[in-house]
Each structure stands twice: as structure tokens, then as C-alpha cells.
Amino acid sequence: MLRRTVLAAFSALVLAAPAVHAQNAGEINLYSARHYDTDRQLYDAFTQETGIRVRVIEGQADQLIERIRNEGANSPADVFLTVDAARLARAAQAGILAPYQSQTVDGRVPAALRDPQGLWFAFSQRARLIMYDREKGRPEGLNRYEDLADPRFRGMICTRSGAHPYNTSLAASVLMADGAEKTEAWARGVVANLARPPQGGDRDQFRAIPSGQCSLAIANSYYLGQFGRSDKPEDQALFRRIGVIFPNQGEGDRGTHVNISGGGLVRTAPNRANAIRFLEFMTTPKAQEAFALGNMEYPVVEDAPLHPALAAMGKFRAEPVNAAGNLDRTPEALQILQRAGWN
Ligand SMILES: [Fe+2]
Which residues sit opposite 97 in a β-bridge? Predict the structure, then answer.
């Protein structure tokens, strides 16, 4: 039922695009660190609407940045696309992106989700959540990431390695808010509260809640959302069983930590006008819906529809994305996590 809503909307997007038979509308080359089939369908929709062919070169973000640098003025790259704010900041620092004027992008994407220099913007976002067992009820005194270090949660928390960018990015955000000393005490407190040594991916953390192995899990929103979208009864049962806490929502608090997928115009883009057209296309409600919900992420534009499973998880206020700050503090955050034994 939920699934059908999205598929219907997605088909409408693909089918409703007018067939364009322009022979010389040209092409664009996307250098993308994302690997989702739904992204490809979206690029096809762009081609149908504009006649512009889309070629995708996939790779890891840092390798793509290096490749664009090495190719220099001869690079075919028009648009760089990746996940993780710190990696977008790294691309900006590496000098491979260029600013451009677009009232469409500026008007549709909130300023908090755009680079202050206009070098990139977010296409979608995901929140880092605390999850619990609804059958046991929402734990008292657990409203902030900082609360995870409280001794009352001894032996309850499951999380993946601190070396994974999702946790390092979260720790960098705590570090920017609380400073080094408090962050180290926090990391030691979380490690003292672990139910088991860090292992597996985000899904493995909340999947271990029903058996009682883990009482609390730290995981990204879209992983749970994917269970909410699934047609399988057992996935639906797990989705209903897991409760979510959007941390740091109190008045004056900084908001829930989010990370983003985003992209920008490559400085040496040979197909600059087409590339800007593509970036603007990504802000349309239909593209937003298809791109974000392909992976069950949150769209960034206000009028893009939200999947019912995501809506059911609740509304929240996000911490403003500070990509450059996060990139800056990531090495220190990683050191702190490692000293604390969050391996
Ligand atoms: Fe992921």
C-alpha cells in the first residue's frame, strides 16, 4: 500500500515527462559516488524531458575528486555528486567546483542546505537517530545524543564502528557543540554503555532490538524507513516495533544531526549550461521525491511529498549542516573515538 503510493508517483514522473526528440541537445557527464538504481531512472526522466543524454561515471568520492583534479582542463566531468557533507566540503576545498547563479536552486533549497559560497547544495538528507523497543516503552531521560553516556543506560546501546563516517560525523558535530573534553567524556560514557562491541552496519543495530540483545540503537533514518516501505510482513512488524528518538529537539538545542547527499557544478564543466539545468531539475518536487525516496531519505525542498513511512516516524528540527566545520573536526573526532575505545 505504502509502496504503491511511491511507485505510482514515480511512474507518473517517468511517464509524464514529454518525449523530446532533440538531436543536438547534448549531454552531461555525472561523476557520482552514489550507487542506487533509482538514481538511474531519474536521469532517464531528465533525458526524456530535455533531450540531454546523461553519462554516469561511478566511483568513490575521494577517487572521483582526485580524478577530476588529474584530468584538469580536459576533464569531461560536468557534475559531481556524493553522500556526506564532509566530502562535499572536501570537493569544494580541492577546487573542483564552481559557483553559478540560479534563482531556482536558491529559491527552492533552504540556505542551511546550500554551501555559503554556492559551490554545492543538498539533494536529500538523512537523520542519525536513537532507536528503542516500543514494547519496553520510550526510555526516560534520553533526549539528546549527550544522554547516551548516562550510566542509567549501562549495557543497552548497540552501534557500528566509530571509524565509520556516520559515527565520526556525529562525533564531529558533538565536538563542535561541546568541545574536546566533554566529547571525550561522552565517548567513554557511550562505550561504557555498549551492549556488545561495535559491529555490523546500521541495520544490524536495530534488528537486534526485538531479541533483547540491544535495547537502544544508533542508526540512520533511511535504514528503518526501508523496513517501513517493505511489502514483507516481517519487515513491517519490525518497523512497528522500533520507536525513534530525534535527539536534541529541546528549545535552544542544536537539533538532530543530519547528513546529506548533494552535488555541484564542476569548475571545468564542458557542458556548463546543461549541467546547471540538471542541478535545477534536481530541485523539482518530482525529482526530489524520486531521488530522496529511492533510498528513503528526506527531500530538501518543502513541497516534495514525504513517504508515509517517513512521515510516521515524526517531524523534527535538523541541526544546520556545517560541512566545512565537520570536515575540519573529523580527524580530531576520530582520534577521540579511538582513545575512548569506540572501535
Ligand atoms: Fe548508508
Answer: 266
Q: Is 222 annotated as a binding residue?
A: yes
Spacing, Cα 20 to ligand 1 middle (Å):
35
CATH class of segment(s) 28-125+258-305: alpha beta
Residue corresponding to grid cell 528513503 = 296
Expressed in angstroms and rounded, the spacing between residue 87 Cα and the centre of ligand 1 is 14
Q: What is the pLDDT of residue 97?
A: 98
Would the annotation count 35 as a binding residue? Answer: yes
Taking residue 179's Cβ as centre, other Cβ atoms within 10 Å add up to 10
Distances 182 to 94, 170, 192 between C-alpha atoms, Å: 32, 14, 15
Q: How far is the CA of 4 from the centre of ligand 1 (A)?
A: 24
Q: Which residues of the chain are under the pLDDT cut of 70?
A: 1-24
The model's pLDDT over 89-102, given as tens digits with 9 standing for 90+, comes to 999 999 999 999 99
Residue ranges, CATH 3.40.190.10, the chain: 28-125+258-305, 127-256+321-340
Task: Report CA(297)–ligand 1 centroid distance (Å).
Answer: 10
Superfamily of domain 127-256+321-340: Periplasmic binding protein-like II (3.40.190.10)
